[in-house]
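Q:
My hope is that you can spare some time for a protein that puzzles me. I hope you can help me see how the letters and the tokens relate. Thank you; the sequence and its tokens follow:
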Amino acid sequence: MRMGMVGLGRMGGNMVRRLLRTDIEVAAWNRTPSRVQELAREGALPAGNLSELVGLLPAPRVVWCMLPAGAATEERLDELAALLSPGDVLVDGGNSRHTDDPVRAERFGGQGIHYMDVGVSGGVWGLTEGYCCMVGGSEQGYNLLEPFLLALAPAGGVMHCGPSGAGHFVKMIHNGIEYGMMQAYAEGFALLEGSAYAEGLDYAELARLWNRGSVIRSWLLELAGRAFEQSPRLEELRPWVDDSGEGRWTVEQALESGTPAPVLTLALMERFRSRTENSFADRLLAALRNEFGGHSVRRREEGE
């Protein structure tokens, strides 16, 4: 079997490597040629452009795009659709918004191409642990794609979630839950750090302890332990937390459906808060406390 991979970043590159450990051949293309050559040395079939990549694949072709959501994905999908034939499978494995998928499925389906959306979780550890794959699209397209999914995923790590859009929707909610879990761990360790017991606590050891039979054990907690092993108090890191979009979309879904999601919403707000230095809102809060209660305020030094 052979498939094509477009996009060889941290996720796409390691997905190619995982596939190459099986009997699956992979034709690979990336905008940066050096990444193509790197994987070619590991056994991938290098393609100089998308037309060449499609030419390396047997029918029915399977081409997987693993690119950032937005213009990069849209452009490559359109280019590939012009090169593929009826019966071929075109996959978006990035974190695109689920509402884009039915539109694409209708457009590409008019050409006889099976468009599939696959939400992928696994991060940089997917190479060794496998990738959890949440799939949306037609049954026929899923059946053609399934052998590649099974090679990428750990046992039980693939689910056909429903029609076009379902894969990306489930992945969006997955990431929203992830926001909430990460926030809970962050707040818990912050409470420990602000306590009288902080000096005697080894957070890496504590994370390992909580992963031994505790009800809050998880892979995220294991990763927290690894972070503390490398830096016991994380002093070198700035308190700035980005978001890649899925958390925002999850909160928008909560608003649209009228479904209460206070934890996930607050976790997103906390990420926004992390990026505010010299917060105007906090300055106003301090001023209001001073005005109504005479509470002291801390004033900035001249030139600060």
